[in-house]
Every structure is written in C-alpha cells, then in structure tokens.
Amino acid sequence: MSLNTEVQTLLAQLGVTPEAGPLPTRTPISGESLGSIAEHTAAEAEAAIQSAHRAFRDWRNVPAPLRGELVRLLGEELRANKAALGRLVSIEVGKVVSEGLGEVQEMIDICDFAVGLSRQLYGYTIASERPSHRMMETWHPIGVIGVISAFNFPVAVWSWNTALALVCGNAVVWKPSEKASLSALAAHALLERALKRFADAGHHAPDGLSSLLIGGRALGEALVDSPKVALVSATGSTRMGREVGPKVAARFGRSLLELGGNNTAIVTPSADLDLTLRGVAFAAMGTAGQRCTTLRRLFLHDSIYDAFLPRLKSAYSSVKVGNPLETGVLIGPLIDDGALVGMEKALDDARAAGGTVHGGAAVTGLGGAYAHPALVEMPAQVGPVVHETFAPILYVMRYKDFDDVLEKHNEVPQGLSSSIFTNDLREAEAFLSARGSDCGIANVNIGPSGAEIGGAFGGEKETGGGRESGSDAWKAYMRRATNTINYGTTLPLAQGVSFDI
Length: 501
Ligand code: UN1
Hints:
The chain contains 14 helices and 23 strands. The strands form seven sheets. The chain has a seven-stranded mixed beta sheet, with helices on both faces. It has a five-stranded parallel beta sheet with strand order 7-6-5-8-9, sandwiched between helices. The protein has a three-stranded antiparallel beta sheet with strand order 3-4-23, with no helix packed on it. It has helices spanning 3-13, 42-59, 64-80, 82-93, 97-117, 156-167, 181-200, 217-225, 238-250, 273-285, 302-318, 337-352, 402-409, 425-432; strands spanning 20-26, 33-37, 125-126, 133-141, 144-148, 171-175, 210-212, 229-235, 254-258, 263-267, 295-301, 356-359, 362-363, 370-371, 374-377, 393-399, 414-415, 417-421, 441-444, 456-457, 460-461, 468-469, 478-486. The radius of gyration is 24 Å and the shape is globular. By secondary structure, the chain is an alpha/beta fold. Helices cover 39% and strands 21% of the residues. The structure holds 2-aminohexanedioic acid. 2-aminohexanedioic acid binds at residues 106, 152-153, 157, 235, 291-293, 449-451.
C-alpha cells in the first residue's frame, strides 16, 4: 500500500474528508504527495476569530467542571483513536512509530490533567489589614486563544493549549504548521466529535468554540493582529517569536512564546556512564534532532571524555536511519530538503570553526531528506554551537572546572532545557540552584527532552519565557481579579489614610 493510500484510509477512519484545494501535502518519508487540500482565506480567519469571540461569551458562563467534561470526552476520543492518529503523525512528519504514538499519549495526558484542573482553578484568600474585610482572588477566562503550532509536535502542542484553554473558559482558533495540515484536521475532527457528544448529552457548546485554520502565514498573522485574540500561544523559531511578541505586545495582548532551544547535558566525573549513554542518545538523536528540547550541547568532563566519546560514537554509527515506520529504525527523515541544507551548512560552519565532524552524511535514495546523526567535537563554544539548528547535530566539548562549565552552559542566548549527569549531590544541587542552569527545565540524570505534561513546559531568554502544560501554566489562559469585601459597617481605608467628608 502506498503511503498516500494509507493516509487516505487513516483520514477516513478518523472521520476527515479534506476538501481539495491548492495546498500541497506530502510525507517526508518518501516525498510522496498526500493530496492537495483547501486553504482558509484571511476573511475566513477573521470570521473564525469573531465567531470564537461570540462562543467565548457563552462558554465563560459554563461551570468549569462541566467545561472539563468536554475535555474528558476529547481524551476519550484520543484514546479510541490513538493508533490511527499516531500513525498519521508518523507519516506526515516522519516520526518513528513509538514517537507518533507518544505524541498522542501526551495529548491524552494533558486532557486528564485539564479535567482535574477544571475543579482546581484556585485563587488565594488573603488576610486583609482592615477589620471585617476579606480579600481573595478570582480567576476568569480571557477570551479567544490563538494557537500557532510547529510541524515537529503537530498535534500535542495544540492539545496542551486547547485542553487548558477550554477548561479555563476560553475559545480557541488554531493555525497549525502547513507541513502538518492533515494531522491537524484529524486532531480537530476528534474535538468536533467530542463537542457533538457533549451537545448530545444535553450540554451547551457554542458554535465556533474551537476552529482550525489551514494554510500559510497570513492566517497566523490574522491571529497576531486581531484585538479579539487575547492570548497568542506560538511555538516555533526565535525569528518567528521576535515578530509575534512585539506585535501582540503593541496591542497589549498576551503572548506565550515557545521558541528555540539549545539544550545541554553536562557529564561529570561521577556520572553513571551506561545511563548517560542512553539518556544522551535519545535526547540528541530522537525525533531526528527535531524537538525544541533536543540535546545539542554536550559537556564532557576531561576525566571521562576519552572513555565516553568512543561509546557515543559507536552508538551514533550503529543507530538505524531510514523509514521511520520500519521496526528497528530510530531516526527518520528531516522534515524537508531545507532542513537538510541547514544541517549541512551547520556542519560546514563547525568545521570552519575548528570542529571535527563524525557522521552527518546525507542518506540518498529513500526519497526524503535523510541524514546520519552527527557528533561534532568542538574546541570551544563558538560558531554554530550557539545557534539552534533543527537537525541531529550534537556538539561535544571538554571541560575541566565545574564552575566554568556552568558559566559556559548559560552563555548561549537560548534557555529551554538542560541536564546534568552526576552522582555527586553537590554538583546536582548546584546545577539546579540559582547559580546553576538558567533554563526553564533543568534535569538530573535524565536528558533534556521528553518532558512529562505535569510540569510547566517552556524556557527563558530567547526561548521566549512562556510556560505551557502542567503546574500552574493554566494561569496564562485566565485573568486574575483581586476582590476586597467589606462585611462591616464602617469604611476603614487601607494604609491608615483618612478622608472624612
Ligand atoms: C517541542 O519540541 O516543541 O519535552 C515540544 C519534550 C516533549 C515536547 C517537545 N514533551 O521533548
């Protein structure tokens, strides 16, 4: 069966019949076309925003636990369709099978989390300085949430935002990557099914509560520019975030930015090297280096460098690159030829900066943009090492002094994820302390990628500062009102001010 035939079967199974149109879709596995589909116009984007705004005005009045019921139904649909959606993701963006399934599992997990959250949108009660007064805070929905997502997690990132946004009482308009339109159509169809079941059970779900915009950049711009979009949650490159952030700020909207990472592992003299090898291999080569959390900088202590590097090299040369749907393959294709060109350029730049490149050769003849993962021994943190290249390149550097490596670690402009491999309590705790990693995610004896949904996800500096998913990330999707209630018969003023009339 051709991949196109399989995709059409999966789409039918998932209840999607894409309308034909000018937007080409393809699989990076073979380069084969998956059909050309209809795009939304800018006018349709505007209409979706308006209708989402109307929907929000209703949805905000639905009790949060009942809003949670809708997300619970979405979780059920995802559970029932995990295999089909996971497979579609694998084919459309080239992930190995278990990672396609893992992506859908991440969606299920956030739905479960959001259902619980729907009964836990807690505000504080605050001691008032005035007699017979009570203070508290209340969290309210904010409006339309615009979600702009990237190709590499084509459906999970939408679900992190949408599951939270919906229980928080907001409406959602989603602009996915045009490299992953089919997965987006399928994921959204599952939400539509959940909405139908919700309505069939007698609950009110307003029209336009969630919509999907298929197409290019102009649609994302509509979300960024519309004063009706209260929060723009955008995942992508730092370059994209540099455009989105200021535009949204100029209209005093909120943005939640998940941008580039340049993630690390520091391997110290006491590290368990077997565990480190597995942690480093998954984090650096998994998803063909196309996670924002992918391990890109590896600092090896001088005392273990010569023992560890050959083991890593042999893991790199034995890993199977190829069709990600085949058993045993761990590295699928890059998303497109442009990504391969970017990888080759970074390797050239690394050589020019004094690096020694192991691996990294393109694999031809498969129809897609395949490459062997590259390990690059660098004399210093220079050249391409300080940039994010969305490809499986791991820069390896030697260090001697722990304090010095902490400085080096934080020297780059990005601040997403980081890790240390050590059995030394002092090093581990120092890495997690204020003088340690400056990233939004800092791990011990686990690589930087593969975060669970229970924690807040995101990073600092050029990574954009946003937090999605677990912990109290929901607060970004709500507004806080501070309430002071006077249940006495006098009117004492705060700070002892008197104003007698
Ligand atoms: C991304 O690459 O945009 O932590 C998200 C991870 C995944 C999410 C990655 N849970 O690697």
